[in-house]
């Protein structure tokens, strides 16, 4: 499977092998509105999806053949919870651009009701900084993803910039609450 978000820091699966990987024609984006999990109906959070265009660095994980029967249902139930993704086989490449296999990836379903396209940065920052649900905060999801990418030597400048802005927004909102 190709991991580009929370699957990197919390695969919750038995992984036999992991490898840094890149896919072409898809990019990591906060394009899935989360009215559950990391948000609520009144204050929806955001989750990452693979949206069309560009490229994305992440991790390719291999599940052992002997574990497929138990692990694939776990993966499916987790990623298909709110019907925002379409599973697709994508070619994965190494840092030099040489293909080394195919991986299942969960790309955004642009026809899904929770798909959000081209949210202004300020809107993304506020949703990520303020949304929380039964799985935790959207900010925590962002920060953990940024940290996990960096721990694998992957720097996503857009994600890092967003993490910096969300961190500032959280600090600003805490300062305002303390002053009140």
Tally of helical segments: 5
Q: What letter string, H or E per element, gives the SSE order?
A: EHEEHEEHEEHH
Radius of gyration: 16 Å
Question: What's the end-to-end separation, in Å?
Answer: 48 Å
Q: Helical content, roughly?
A: 25-40%
Strand order across the largest sheet: 1-3-2
What portion of the residues fall into strands of 2 or more residues? 25-35%
Largest sheet: 3 strands, antiparallel
Brief rundown of the structure:
The protein is an alpha+beta fold.
Can you offer a commentary on this structure?
The chain is an alpha+beta fold. The chain has helices at 6-9, 68-79, 121-130, 138-151, 157-179, and strands at residues 2-3, 17-34, 45-62, 85-93, 99-108, 132-133, 136-137. Strand 6 and strand 7 form a beta hairpin. Residues 175-180 have low confidence and may be disordered.
Topology of helices and strands:
Layout: E1 2-3, H1 6-9, E2 17-34, E3 45-62, H2 68-79, E4 85-93, E5 99-108, H3 121-130, E6 132-133, E7 136-137, H4 138-151, H5 157-179
Antiparallel strand pairs: 1-3, 2-3, 4-5, 6-7
Helix pairs in contact: 3-5, 4-5
């Amino acid at each position: 499977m190709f991991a580009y978000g929370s699957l990197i820091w919390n695969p919750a699966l038995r992984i036999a092998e992991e490898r840094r990987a890149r896919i072409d024609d898809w990019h990591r984006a906060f394009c899935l509105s989360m009215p559950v999990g990391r948000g609520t109906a009144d204050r929806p959070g955001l989750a990452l999806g693979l949206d069309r265009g560009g490229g994305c660095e992440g991790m390719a994980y291999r599940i052992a053949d002997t574990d497929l029967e138990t692990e694939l249902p776990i993966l499916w139930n987790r990623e298909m919870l709110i019907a925002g993704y379409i599973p697709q086989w994508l070619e994965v490449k190494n840092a030099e651009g040489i293909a080394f296999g195919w991986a299942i990836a969960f790309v955004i379903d642009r026809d899904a009701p929770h798909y959000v396209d081209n949210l202004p940065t300020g809107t993304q920052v506020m949703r990520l900084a303020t949304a929380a649900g039964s799985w935790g905060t959207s900010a925590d999801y962002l920060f953990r993803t940024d940290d996990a990418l960096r721990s694998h030597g992957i720097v996503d400048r857009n994600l890092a910039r967003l993490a910096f802005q969300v961190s500032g927004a959280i600090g600003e909102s805490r300062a305002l609450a303390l002053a009140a």
